[in-house]
Design brief:
Its EC number is 1.2.1.16, 1.2.1.20, 1.2.1.79. Keywords: Oxidoreductase. The chain has 15 helices and 24 strands. The protein is of the alpha/beta class and 479 residues long. The chain folds into 2 domains: 267 residues, Aldehyde Dehydrogenase, Chain A, domain 1, CATH 3.40.605; 190 residues, Aldehyde Dehydrogenase, Chain A, domain 2 (3-Layer(aba) Sandwich). The strands form 7 sheets. A 7-stranded mixed beta sheet has the order 14-17-18-13-12-20-21, with helices on both faces.
Length: 479
């Protein structure tokens, strides 16, 4: 990138008020791949000002007009799929094939929201007396803020702002410090699609706390959507209370994956591998705690080890690479610490286990651990890395209890061929998303979100649009 990206405010690219910038680096090489404006509190206020001014007129547009703008964004994303995918891999590190898949997934949210804009309905309710009429009217919340993470630089943005725009809201986007370039290019596409000035605004920066505070304390921001850690989510929730903002939180996960004795073991191992090692294990819904019935544990462990050993580690732009770098040194330290702790407490290394670091570049081999016990850190904390720990169980009740024994409740998975067990276990698991014989269940038309400390609200499908609407009751007295 020859020129730095500024902030996108009121339909224009503009530098930060104090002209500060920062470098964006490739986690696979350490090379600088872009320069972005480094926003401060005044820049956030400028973005909110623009969104607030644009809201009344945007809220009045017809559903058809909003849908047409979103459809143009979808078409642009599909047209520029390769460009967006390469940009994502350079700043985030995931293999190019995964980046292409994410661009398509991100575009799906735009397409679905374009269609859903036309299906925002009100209601007529029978009144209690003949001289009254009761209507229920749905209208946009107002200015919304979207705070997104580094692990999915495209889809976490479109999953938040596409339904907001479909509902008639204006938006201010704050992407993760590590991955702003994909966000910048996406905002270009929204501008090119004809969204009026001020409807879509972008602030990039290194001081996430200051930017977040500015968004949360401004009473004109009526809704905040956040994807990130549970710890930060709790802070945002407390601060949102001061102005009673609507808030959606998609937070941490510690997903169990249960393999029952009647499972198709080969298919289950393939699905655990697909879930666990996608994005080098840096996903909130990946399989973190793998529970296998003791009667099939040896066979399953061997199959999963074989799957992991076939995965190629390297720069995501290289042909055939399936495991890219970890995002930074702290991430690598955590993964290494979890593996070391498990081995010291009696775990058995099946494959992998080695950290591959050079300077500020950090890779970790796809790793499978067996003989896992509950006192190990890897069973209590989200690893966010390519490590698959296997623990055995004897009964269905034990497996369900172990799976639910977590403060998190985002995603859970299990493999079985028994229909009765499928119903019992799916209903008993305390998780917002349950994959039955499916390790990758996420899709644009379904609700995504968690229970317990994994968050509030849902994104995706009609449920995602609901988060950006207010319900107004209108009672009309007749003469």
């Amino acid at each position: 990138m020859d020129q730095p990206y500024g902030l996108f405010i009121n339909g224009e690219w503009t530098p930060a008020v104090d002209r500060r910038t920062y470098n964006v680096t490739d986690p696979a090489t350490g090379a600088v791949v872009g320069i972005c404006a480094d926003a401060g509190e005044m820049d956030v206020k400028r973005a909110i000002d623009a969104a607030d001014r644009a809201f009344p007129e945007w809220a009045k547009t017809t559903a058809k007009e909003r849908a047409e703008c979103l459809r143009k964004v979808y078409d642009g994303m599909r047209r520029l799929e390769e460009e967006l995918a390469e940009m994502m891999t350079r700043e985030q590190g995931k293999p190019l094939a995964e980046s292409r898949g994410e661009v398509r997934y991100a575009a799906d949210f735009v397409e679905w929201s374009a269609e859903e804009a036309k299906r925002i309905y009100g209601e007529t309710i029978p009144a209690s007396s003949p001289d009254k009429r009761i209507w229920v009217h749905r209208q946009p919340v107002g200015v919304t803020a979207a705070i997104t993470p580094w692990n999915f630089p495209a889809s976490m943005i479109t999953r938040k702002i596409a339904p907001a725009l479909a509902a008639g809201c204006t938006v201010v986007v704050k992407p993760a410090q590590q991955t702003p370039l994909t966000a910048c290019r996406l905002v270009d596409l929204f501008h090119e699609a004809g969204f009026p000035d001020g409807v879509v605004n972008l602030v990039t920066g290194t001081d996430a706390a200051a930017i977040g505070d500015a968004l949360l304390k401004d009473e004109r921001v009526r809704k905040v959507g956040f994807t990130g850690s549970t710890e930060v989510g709790k802070i945002l929730m407390r601060k949102a209370a001061d102005t009673v903002k609507k808030i959606s939180l998609e937070l941490g996960g510690h997903a169990p994956f249960i393999v029952f004795e009647d499972a198709d073991l080969k298919r289950a191992a393939e699905q655990v591998s697909a879930s666990k090692f996608r994005n080098a294990g840096q996903t909130c819904v990946c399989a973190n705690r793998i529970y296998v019935h003791e009667s099939v544990a040896d066979t399953f462990t061997r199959l999963l080890g074989a799957e992991a050993s076939r995965l190629k580690v390297g720069n995501g732009l290289e042909e055939g690479v399936q495991i890219g770098p970890l995002i930074d040194r702290a991430a690598a330290d955590k993964v290494e610490g979890h593996v070391k702790d498990a081995l010291e407490k009696g775990a058995r290394l099946v494959v992998g286990g080695t950290r591959l670091s050079e300077g500020d570049v950090h890779f970790f081999e796809p790793t499978v651990l067996a003989d896992i016990t509950d006192n190990m850190r890897i069973q209590q904390e989200e690893t966010f890395g390519p490590v698959a720990p296997i623990q055995t169980f004897r009964t269905d009740e034990e497996a369900i209890a172990k799976a639910n024994d977590s403060r998190y409740g985002l995603a859970a998975y299990f493999y079985t061929q028994d229909l009765s067990r499928t119903i019992r276990v799916a209903e008993a698991l305390e998780f917002g998303i349950v994959g039955v014989n499916d390790g990758v269940p996420s899709t644009a038309q379904a609700p995504f979100g968690g229970m317990k400390e994994s968050g509030l609200g849902r994104e995706g499908g009609r449920y995602g649009v609901e988060e950006f609407l207010e319900t107004k009751y209108i009672s009309l007295g007749l003469k």
